[in-house]
Amino acid sequence: MLKNYFSLIFLFIFFNSINAQNTYVPDDNFEQALIDLGYDDVLDDYVVTSNISGVTSLDVSYKLIENLTGIEDFGNITNLNCRSNKLTSLDVTKNTALTDLWCGSNQLTSLDVSQNTALTDLWCGSNQLTSLDVSQNTDLTLLNCALNQLTSLDITQNIALEWLVFSYNQLTNIDVTHNTALTELEFNENQLTSIDVTQNTALKNLWCAENQLSSIDVSKNSDLEVLWILINQLTSIDVTQNLKLETLNCYNNQLTSLDVSQNTDLTYLFCPVNQLTSINIKNANNSIIYMFDATENPSLTCIQVDNETDANNGIAPYNTWEKDASATYSEDCSTFGKTYVPDDNFEQELIDLGYDDVLDDYVVTSNISGVTRLYLGKKQISDLTGIEDFTNIITLTCEQNSLHTINLSNNHKLEKLECWHNQLDKLDVSNNPELRELDCKGNNIDELILENNSKLIDLDCSENKLSSLLVANLADLEVLYCSTNNIDKLDVSYNLNLDKFFCSDNKLSSIDVNNNINLTRFSCSQLNLTTIDVSNNTNLVEFYCSRNNLTSLDISNNRNVFYFACTDNEIDEICVWDLDYANTRDENNNWQKDPTAKYSENCSALGVDDDILSEGLNLYPNPVANTLSIESKLPLSKVEVYSVLGQKVKEVNSDFNSISTENLSNGIYLIRIYSEKGVVVRKIIKK
Fold this sequence. Notes:
eleven-stranded parallel β-sheet; twelve-stranded parallel β-sheet; mainly beta; Leucine-rich repeat, LRR (right-handed beta-alpha superhelix); disordered N terminus; elongated
């Protein structure tokens, strides 16, 4: 019996000796991580203690570990990274050598680091901590406890702190006045109403977004580089002492003014949704500012910058800047309410007209905004900047100057524009819908878009570089001068009111004026024409068609022609209505032709008279409601219906006496009627 008793005692001592040499590690994921690191070799809930007791650094992050039991035997560990696991508790009271503890992104509800007095770095963010005591950790230089449920945090004993991050908690106040070594302070999304950072003179980065701050003094933080104070209740912020500031985000506060003129290192300024009335960003270094946004500040009218011309024209770096349309860039916001007029000759003329009194590049805007007529011809003006504030101008003449551009985007009431003989490359009149007269001849314009100028009556765009010209929408056009361009196609068939039409010296190979029965003056010289039909233009008084490739010409229907020139062609015979009249006009040099050409009353058929085409032709009713009938003695082959804009809206190939017009909108339409004798165009009105 006694022998059995001593045997049991021996076995107890033996097994206790074995367990004393092993560390219990119940979490399989933790043990597997130790196996992977070479500290263990079999998954059996135990690790040889001597294998781990000397370990100084351990990284078991992202291992799905739920229990870190066994960590207490890592007696010499100084660096422990167990972040991004499933830990609900962590006991590091035995790990007194720890200097770096990373345990963030777990499910910890509490953390005791009171025994870890050597800690310098503590990362415990993204847990469920409601309290944290770091009063014993006086060597801490970095503390990140963001994304927890902390309502208070005492760091008054942690005077070595350089980095402090406690964003996304529930703190209402914190004392950082003892932490004079801080360079990084981040406490976004808490409930702080105030904070004193005047003692943190080494601070470089301050992030305090989404709190309830009504004021903050950063005047002592001369090393500050980043200031992130968006979504607070600030009414003012003074950064004039923060000369190293690079980033400022003050979005969604109640700021009324902002001065960053002293912040020459600034690259990022984000200040939308405030109550700003002024911003001074004239810091002599706008070129490095890649982000600027001052939108949603409805009372902001002036933003002071280094270069107002580049800024207002969207030239880099200003091309990426954002502001409300109501705000303007200026180099001097003290001139707000004035119009910038940089051209001295322009301003001197305004002085002479009584709209200004001193030559200083500015005119009081209210003095010019009501002006309706302005005459600036031959004034040696090279820049018309300032004309945009003549918002009521009706007539503008600025011919024979040295203008390269004109900004007319704000002159919506403009009816008459004379800008001929300048050096314009472009002319944008898309914002001038009231324009009736436009004379822009003698420039370098290569494109002229008139789709918004349907009220135009008089257009002279001669002597430019136009390759095309669309005028189909100009139903009221009476005068069109477009000579000396590069136009190769031109349709005037919808300009029924055309009275004067000069298109000479272009690249046109054909021109149709059959619909322009009101023409009195027509010049089509120096083109590539082989034929020209003016038989419908019975009102012609002047007709010029020299320097073409014409082989025949019939002007026998043009009995009102007084001036006529048709030289440099290949015409043998010109058909006229009265030979004596023609010869008399020729002798008086009112008519001109090649010496080899002769006038004749008995020409061979050069075309089909409109009277023949129209014989027995009848369109009714006109105006028409639902059905149009066409009667003709000649067989018809096709009927086409066109809008006044030149768009074909209907084609009929049979049943010409019953053409449905139900689907046509009310208005004027041109009907092209085709027969074996040619084409006749008639106008109808749909009611």
